[in-house]
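Quick one:
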Amino acid sequence: MLYKSSKDIEQVEDSAGLNDEDWPRVAQVKEKFGSLRFYVRIGGENNENGKIASVQAAADQIWSLVSDAEIESHQICESCGNAGVLRCGGWWRVLCQACDLINQSRTVI
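Output:
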């Protein structure tokens, strides 16, 4: 999922013709409350006016891709990649039924 999201972002960058200073920088990727969080910094603050519009259009597309990935992460098992559901029991995790059973068997009571 991260690989696909990163490739999608690269395609936006390539089609927008962004230079190195304008390229988005991944600040952080993590799991929080059972779903993906993908923090990206967008460059382009010091460009001339025409370039800022192009960077902003690319940024809007990138934010949309990041949002889609975060939503998708609510439905993908973090252990095996199959369809999963959010499970709240201590840690919030998205797991399929099989991985949840394995996880429960490892839990010490």
